[in-house]
Specification:
Rossmann fold, 6-stranded mixed beta sheet, binds guanosine-5'-triphosphate, binds magnesium ion, G domain-containing protein, P-loop_NTPase
Length: 260
C-alpha cells in the first residue's frame, strides 16, 4: 500500500482527468462533517495546497480552537479547485460548521439531512434555534448535481476516546440517513501528528472509530493536514491524495450506480 501512496504525485492523473461519467453531474460533491475544530476546513485547504503544490489558505480555519465552531458564519461553503490552465477539477467540497455540545447549539441533524438531499442552497446560515423548512434558501426541486455524492466524517485521531457522546450520536444519525439514501461514506482521521505515532496505535484507533461510527476500517484514512508548514511535502501530500482519490472513486461509483 505504501508503494501506491508514494507513487501519487500532485499531478495525479486520476484526479486531473476525472470527470463524472454521469452526464447529469459536472462536479462530484463531497460533504465533510465532524466535531468542532477537528480540521475539516484545514483538510479542504490541504487538498488545495496539494493540488496547487504550494501552501494555500482559502477555507477559514481557527488557530485557537475552543468549544464553538469557527466555520460558523457560513451555511454550506462550497470549495472547488483550480486546475490551471484548464479550469477546475471535477470534484468539490462542502464545508459546514462543526457539531457542538450541547447538541442544541450546533447545526441541526435535520438540516444536514436536507443538505444531503440537495435542499439547502449555498450561503444558507444554519440556525441553531430552528431547522430550515422553506424560504429563499430552500431548494424544493434539487437535481442530482445539488445532492451530496460522498459523505466524509472527520474525526480527531488524538482525542478519539474523549469524543463527546452527543457528537458521536449526531455523526451516526447523519451517517444512517446517508446510508438510507445510498450515499457512500468514508472517514478521515486528522491530527495524526498529535496522536500515537506508532502504527499499531493508529490501527487500534481505526478499529475503535469503526465501531463508534459504523464505518468499515477499510473506508478510514489517516491524514495530516497542512496547518503549520510553509512548504508542501511528499509524505503529507501522499496521505491527502490517497484519501481524496478514495473519495472521488466511491462518489463516481455512486453516480454510475444511479445511472444504472
Ligand atoms: N497538529 C495538527 N493541527 C491541525 C491539523 N488539522 C487542523 N489542525 C489545526 O486545528 C485547528 C482547527 O482546524 P479547522 O480546520 O479550523 O477545524 P474545523 O473542523 O474546520 O473547525 P470548525 O469549523 O470550528 O468546526 C487549527 O488551528 C488547525 O491549524 C492536523 O492535522 N494536525
Ligand atoms: Mg471549519
Amino acid at each position: 500500500m505504501w508503494h501506491e501512496v508514494k507513487s501519487l504525485t500532485p499531478k495525479s492523473y486520476f484526479l486531473k482527468s476525472y470527470q463524472p461519467r454521469n452526464a447529469e453531474v459536472k462536479h462530484l460533491r463531497i460533504l465533510l462533517i465532524g466535531p468542532v475544530g477537528v480540521g475539516k476546513s484545514s483538510f479542504i485547504d490541504s487538498v488545495d495546497s496539494v493540488l496547487q503544490d504550494r501552501i494555500t489558505g482559502r477555507a477559514p480555519t481557527d488557530a485557537v480552537t475552543g468549544s464553538s465552531s469557527f466555520t460558523k458564519n457560513v451555511g454550506i461553503a462550497v470549495f472547488d479547485f483550480t486546475k490551471d490552465p484548464e479550469g477546475f477539477y471535477s470534484f468539490m467540497f462542502n464545508d459546514l460548521m462543526g457539531f457542538e455540545r450541547p447538541a442544541e447549539s450546533g447545526v441541526h441533524v435535520e438540516d444536514i439531512k436536507l443538505a444531503l438531499k440537495g435542499h439547502v442552497k449555498e450561503g444558507y446560515k444554519f440556525k441553531p434555534e430552528e431547522p430550515l423548512t422553506e424560504g429563499d434558501f430552500y431548494n424544493p426541486n434539487p437535481t442530482l448535481s445539488d445532492r451530496v455524492h460522498v459523505l466524509v466524517s472527520v474525526v480527531p485521531a488524538e482525542s478519539l476516546s474523549i469524543m463527546n457522546i452527543e457528537v458521536v450520536e449526531k455523526l451516526r444519525e447523519v451517517r444512517l440517513a446517508a446510508s438510507e439514501m445510498g450515499i457512500p461514506q468514508l472517514a478521515i482521521f486528522t491530527r495524526i501528528d498529535e496522536a500515537c505515532p506508532e502504527v499499531k496505535g493508529n490501527i487500534n484507533k481505526v478499529e475503535k472509530c469503526s465501531s463508534l461510527l459504523g464505518i468499515p476500517p477499510n473506508c478510514m484514512f489517516l491524514v495530516k493536514n497542512y496547518h503549520s508548514e510553509i512548504t508542501t511535502s511528499n509524505a503529507i501530500n501522499a496521505l491527502i491524495l490517497f484519501a481524496l482519490r478514495a473519495m472521488v472513486s466511491v462518489g463516481e461509483d455512486f453516480l454510475n450506480d444511479l445511472q444504472g
